[in-house]
Amino acid sequence: MKTTRTEEVKMLLAGEWVQREETISVINPQNNECIATVPRASKEDMKYAIESAHKKFSSLESWPVHERIRILKYVSRYVSDNAESFARTIASESSKTINEARGEVARSAQTLEIAAEETRRIQGETVNFDQVEGNENKVGYYYHFPVGVVGAITPFNDPLNLVAHKLGPAIAGGNAVVLKPASETPLSALKLAEAFTEAGLPEGMLSVVTGPGREIGEELVNHPYIKALSFTGGTDAGKKITEKTGTRHVNMELGSNSPVIVLNDADLKDAVAACTDGGFSAAGQNCISVQRVYVEQDSYPLFLEEFIKETKKLKMGDKFTEDTDVGPLISEKEAKRVEQWIHEAKAGGARIETGGVRSGAYVEPAILTNVPPDSTIAKEEIFGPVVLVEPVQNLKEAVDKSNDVEYGLQAGIFTRGVNRAFYAVQNLQVGGVMVNDSSDFRIDAMPFGGTKDSGIGREGVKFAIDTLTEKKVVSFKLSSPF
After folding, report:
1. Given 49, 85, 200, 269, which residue has the most CB atoms within 10 angstroms?
2. How many domains does the structure of the chain reveal?
3. Residues in domain Aldehyde dehydrogenase (predicted)?
């Protein structure tokens, strides 16, 4: 499969690459150029993918662990061997610069390699039934078995690695998968699906169905053959999905509004560098991007001065230019939304210290101060290149303000004090605390997820496998053979 300009790219439906009369245009947000089209799948297509996956899964007498390992290792190598091609696909269809895309490709290969490694470690344990009186003659264990058909929905901001985080654990667990990638960025997912077909994945065990969520997503969420659902996306969409999932397994990685705390004893140079990178990489379209920075009062003036200076150094421009730091947002519509939120905050008294000017889908990296606490940009997820900076009197105030949103994915704190770091670890209402780093830190093996409106369950390959498998207990009642 190639992703050259205006190519008609097919979708993978129950083991076959198919086209449809109606298509969706894949747009390069940098210049609004149509780089490819993909099929606009129907509800019937989605239903067929799900039912075919169920039929294929049910027909497999066994799918040995060694075969799943072989497939995942093959795909990991395939991604590495074709790294530049994958990177150019990511950069073409998304907001990422070519260097950011290359980083995502490397992570994706690693995610799949981890999935292969974790496949061999899907193990159960013996159970001591004789811990309860009367069960001295019983022995047994539990083991993991696949749930069946997994439904997966991915967003636009990491169009390859987040797909790898869905497909890798699902296949490691022995499941069939039906994936609906973001309509803005389907090409990377389809390119990865091609790698799985070349690896010899049994036909029908993977479908990548392209189309608007409002048209085909409901079928994916509601179909009774879908036994587990893994979703990464917006909080509103996630809440609507959970209303329909019932007793099925669910993993939800949703929105965020990530804080970073900078204390007086911090290394300010490190803090500034981490917040600059964490706030503005991928044009701020990252669920763990730095959105709010709380700086202890004595350090606030210098931190702000240096943060503004470093932010102004960032180069915004052509995604394929090697020295570009910041690309466009995913669409001009999203850029206009970010611009509107900035103007709303400014009307309420906020000060724009730098940036914030929009040109098409581009928004200059912006730093805001004196932001009203009830403004949209303070309470909701910006998902754009904007960071709010505020002075605080002490650590407790910083933690209290960090917690004063409906999200809780990750947070960062910069301090040399162990006790202060542990106070933050224990009191920040988030799924992860990064000490002497920004909120924007993740490796693909760690448990990843949040509290409150930031989601349900955890990603990270090992932890996703646990959600996408069932545990079955086996007990043997023994009697004397004599």
Report:
1. 49
2. 2
3. 17-474
Alpha helices in 214-366 (DSSP H): 218-222, 235-245, 268-280, 300-313, 332-347
Could you confirm whether 253 is annotated as catalytic?
yes
- Selected catalytic residue, list 93, 253, 332, 390: 253
| Position 417 pLDDT exceeds 80 | yes
Burial code of 71-98, b = ≥16 C-beta within 10 A, e = fewer? bbbbbbebbbebbeebbbbbbbbbbbbb
Residue 380 CB partners (closer than 8 Å, separation 6+): 255, 257, 341
The gap from C-alpha 37 to its chain's centroid, in whole angstroms, comes to 24
Catalytic residue among 287, 334, 364, 381: 287
Q: What φ, ψ does residue 30 adopt, rounded to 5°?
A: -70, -35
**CA atoms of 229 and 457, how far apart (whole Å):** 11
Pick the closest to residue 93 from 23, 25, 153, 11 (CA basis): 25
- Report the alpha-carbon distance of residue 408 to residue 453 in Å, rounded: 7
CA angle 386, 157, 379 (to 5 degrees): 40
In this structure, the answer to whether residues 52 and 120 fall within a common structural domain is yes
pLDDT, tens digit, 9 for 90 and up, residues 103-117: 999 999 999 999 999
Tokens 């990750």 label which residue? 410
Percent of the chain with pLDDT over 70: 99
* CATH number where 238 lies: 3.40.605.10
What is the span of the domain harbouring residue 136? 7-254+455-472
Q: Which residue has the tokens 């047994």?
A: 140
Does 477 fall in a domain? no
CA distances from 267 to 131, 248, 259, 383, 436 (A): 53, 46, 17, 27, 8
165 occurs within a structural domain: yes
Q: Which residues of 470-480 are buried (b: 16+ CB within 10 A; e: fewer)?
A: eeeeeeeeeee
> Residue 275 catalytic?
no
pLDDT of residue 67: 98
Count of CB atoms within 10 A of residue 70's CB? Answer: 15
Q: What is the pLDDT of residue 480?
A: 83
Band of residue 4 on the pLDDT scale cut at 50, 70, 90? very low
Which CATH number do you get for residue 324? 3.40.309.10
Burial (CB count within 10 angstroms: exposed 0-12, middle 13-18, buried 19+), residue 22:
exposed
Backbone φ and ψ of 36, nearest 5°: -170, 170
Q: Is the pLDDT of residue 296 over 80?
A: yes
Check: pTM over 0.85? Answer yes or no: yes
Phi, psi of 355 (to 5 degrees): 70, -160
Same domain, 98 and 158: yes
Residue 126, strand partner residues: 141
Residues contacting residue 330 through CB under 8 Å, at least 6 positions apart: 29, 94, 95, 156, 157, 184, 185, 285, 361
Mean pLDDT of the 238-247 span: 89
Task: Note whether 274 and 388 are same-domain residues.
Answer: yes
